[in-house]
Every structure is written in C-alpha cells, then in structure tokens.
Design goal:
mainly alpha; elongated
Amino acid sequence: MALQENPQHQEGETTKAIEEQTAKVPSKFFLCAALGAMAISLALKCSGHKHTALFVGQWAAPFLLLGTYNKIVKTLGHDQQDR
C-alpha cells in the first residue's frame, strides 16, 4: 500500500519535534497507564469516592489514544517527503 503525498499539507517543525520526542516513549507505557487508571478508579469506587473514581476512570481512553498516536508516529513518522 503506497502512501499518497500531498505537497500542500506538510508537517511543521513543531510537529516534527513532538513526534521525535513521543516516539521515544515505549508503547507499553500508555497501555500500563490506561490499566492503572482503571485499577485506581475501581479502588476509588470501592472505597466510596464515586465522583473521583469516575474522573480517574475517564483517563483510560485518552491514554489509549495517545498510545495509538505513539504507534502511528513510530510506524509512519514524518511526511514521506522528509525522508
């Protein structure tokens, strides 16, 4: 599957810098963070802190999304033109 290039839409220098840094973080970190948020949420729920448990439990989805972004950056990286 060939990636299509669009010369009108290229990544900026800030995005490149962010991708370089996020690619250094292991993907396992985000999965562990999501599972940890769910475990802490369960513990808070069991201890009677309903609202705090809901707040912490909602962190799981953003951690998983960040992990997905991390994996995409590691796999595809910057625009093909920059390689």
